[in-house]
Amino acid sequence: MTLARTLYSALTWAAQPLLRRKLRRRAEKESGYAEAVPERFGRYTPEDLGADHQGRWLWVHAVSLGETRAAAILLQALRLQHPNLKLLLTHGTATGRAEGQKLLEPGDVQVWLPWDTLAATRRFVRQFRPAVGVLMETEIWPNLLAACQEAGVPVVLANARLNAKSLAGAQRWGALSLPAYRMLSAIWAQTDADAQRLHQLGVEEPEVLGNLKFDVEPDAAQLALGHAWRAANPRPVVLLASSREGEEAQWLAAVQQLQVAGPQAAVQWLIVPRHPQRFEGVQQLFTQAGLTVSRRSQWGAGMPAEADIWLGDSMGEMPLYYALAHACLLGGSFEPLGGQNLIEAAACGCPVLLGPHTFNFAEAAEQACAVGAARRVTDMAAAVQQAVALVQDAAQRAVMQQQALEFAAQHRGAAAATASAVLKLMKETPP
């Protein structure tokens, strides 16, 4: 063990009481963090193995909501090629775990990924003995990878991405991060730019298989309902999609400045916060500003109630919201957070306005803007102004809708390629 990993291991061991305290605090707002806490420290019950624990697990780790949705696309392709797949699914956040429950089939198992101590990671590997591990996008844990290497478990990084900021951080901690990357059996990058940054870090021969999120198939029933609601609404709808902390306040200031909010406004605004624990606070922000709010949880299958703001307070219904909207503002891109997933909006045919911060989807954002599926704006005020103008221009909006659908369709194929690569590795791995 290197000196860097020895020091890291000591710190992760010493930080366990802090982790327990953090989980207790998070559980006050999100009850999911109180579930199965011993699993966080590598302590699993016999029931975690499922009814038949003799099969070979395919272990997939999707830390949070976005990674779990990408994993869902990969798992669909994997099950098409291998119908009897035995899945071990792990997460790090409550939203990821809740979303992951939808992906389980009889015989599958879902647990928390353990905290990255030497003992916990070894217990995890010894308990489940996965055939192959698939880490989604960015999750590199030195002790976990070392435990897998010791046990002869090949692990890959799928749908891998590495932006410039993360590259700088990885280089700064290169004595720890580079050996961890080199313990991976394969790295399958989303884009050429991601592969180049991984190579710059010191990773040899990362392969580009594309972005799994382009293979998303929006729920047809949600699309149909959203289109029906949009057709029945007298005003065009503009969506602030997957908004993050601070962006609703930015939006409110921009709307008040332009005087486009209120019952007689030119558009109907739909706000969908990224994280469910923020729903109440976002509603309070609007009501304190004198705006009326109608929440998705109150609509049922009927039409949304008349209000200044429609608040999307549900999970797993983004296709419904994108279909309901004539255009959207991409959350996470108006604060320095890297932007949320614009690909799902494009797949639903919803024109996108991007803020200045899209480093999480840099290449997709540039490509979408280049073909006319999206537009870049300087700030929230410009986004609000341009969105109101766009939804009043039916011809321009129709062009962007078509470009969005074509953009999403042209980049598909990563799911089948990644699934084939995973299954090939499983065949090559001895029992």
| CATH structural architecture of the largest domain | 3-Layer(aba) Sandwich
Relative helix content? 40-55%
Under CATH, the homologous superfamily of the largest domain reads 3-Deoxy-D-manno-octulosonic-acid transferase, N-terminal domain
Q: Tell me, briefly, the overall form.
A: globular
Can you count the beta strands?
14
Q: What is the CATH topology classification name of the largest domain?
A: Rossmann fold
- Terminal CA distance reads 27 Å
The biggest sheet amounts to: 7 strands, parallel
Instruction: Report low-confidence residues grouped into runs of 5 or more.
Output: 260-264
How would you sum up this structure, described in words?
It is a single chain. With 431 residues, the protein is of the alpha/beta class. The chain has 18 helices and 14 strands. The strands form 2 sheets. The protein has a 7-stranded parallel sheet, sandwiched between helices. Helix 11 (247-258) links the parallel strand 8 (237-243) and strand 9 (268-273). Helix 11 crosses helix 16 (380-391). The radius of gyration is 22 Å and the shape is globular. The model is unreliable at 260-264 (pLDDT under 50).
